[in-house]
């Protein structure tokens, strides 16, 4: 990637940022040295540059007079220091930057505009394009935990290969010591002819098998044969790749174990890391194939197309796609490879080497230093290793000796019981923005149903009090039972609470369902406005920056430094905005998952020995919701704040966001529902003169 690639990425006809710059600055964005006469900035800038040039000449004259006076007093026009030549060059450079061009802009202004419209826009487009391409190729924005079932499959494959290596090496050691053993006792690898299957056995004992049904069960007729064939083909390739990785990992572990036995030194490789990584690659590959075949990745493809056509600014529109792309594992659940471990019967020859190999493997697995991503079950791979005797381990294979069937569960039940909107559906990974969005949708639904039910009850009571036939029948029933009066009394008693409650529910639901999901886009728009204002400020101030280079014989060399920091800002701000958006998308998942893990224990500590009823539960829910919404609102400010953080690190540059409080203004619209509910009293207006003996026609001051 060179300057040509960045320039090409910047000069897209449909790029939104370039179109914005063209609207503001005119044709000079596309043709810097070709006057077109469009807009008013060209002539205005020409006048501004004239004024600045005159001021620079006056300043230069003052310096010259001062230096002439100095020469008369000291006999030297310029102090004798090593920077004199550089000061002359710097001053000349400043005058060159002040030279107006045919379009009325100075060279300094064109330099700032070029840096912003080419370097800034082009670098941001390159990064945004790469992000969209990675998502379209099947990668997720964050590292998702491996499905426990998939980790079990990879672990079973590893142990199958390790079993074969242990048995064969044990027989080899027997033969090396002079003991004769049957040749067919060695484990052999066999593949199926008509169906995909791998079996590792010696005709008597079995180390394990891997198989795929010809047509995976559970795929109903709603899937076309093309879909099934394409996904099944990818599944075969992915299974081959996974098997190869686990076979290589087992060979490396066996080689390290043998070397350690011979020399007593050495370190065994990290088995869990190899298993987890290979399993993750498998599930991502199969899920991507399922999404592509079913058309579920159309939104990701559209995001890639829009970003590559309309530019980096469209990245902020696609947060939901960015957050959920390639994370759902529901389609992988429909695929059912089967892995079996060692059989309990059969002849495996000498078990001494086999026992030692598996003992080392179990020890290494239990003491693994592998750090999984958030949401992974703790010690999941080592959990099923119990403390059996070595002899039992040798005959049963330990670990996954029983048949392990993966993905064999009710998908409908999973869909019904999954924590919708939080993550991949299989782990504890939580995206608080998506979770609060789902809660907001449910809250709005509850509020709408509740208000409709409350209205229906009130209408029914009013009808029962009328003179219609239903009212007459209800009146007769009321005379016998008094049920109508009882219902009316209950409604009148609780009505002062019901309407404010509904009002608050609607406010909370709208805030969580509408406002919260728009926070990424709101802050992205704030960052976009800051970028445009920064570029406009740089273009306007660039002529003054050029004038600060004029300092022959002066010692204030730092006056132009701020302009260089501003120039860097103009070039890298779009790129930093894109990176800030990506980091926000990653941080929100990490923080949301950590919050879920910590909040449960914190709640147990607070309420360890007490429970105050329904209100305490509502209070915890409100606290959790507020933590999530506050987290989302702060984290997604990164696209607007990260450029300022980085630029401040480079140089002390003051930053003031033009639309920094926009998010608060939008939030206040929804918060108005809650504030209005505080003063709402529908059926019981407040009585300022409750004394029944007071004449309410009076003003309340003079009395009756």
TrEMBL record:
Residues 693-704 have a biased composition (Basic and acidic residues). The keyword Membrane applies. The lineage of its organism: Bacteria, Pseudomonadati, Pseudomonadota, Gammaproteobacteria, Enterobacterales. The chain crosses the membrane at residues 44-65, 85-105, 486-516, 522-547, 576-599, 611-633. This is Membrane protein. Residues 680-704 are annotated as: Disordered. Keywords: Membrane, Plasmid, Transmembrane, Transmembrane helix. The keyword Transmembrane applies. Coiled coil: none annotated.
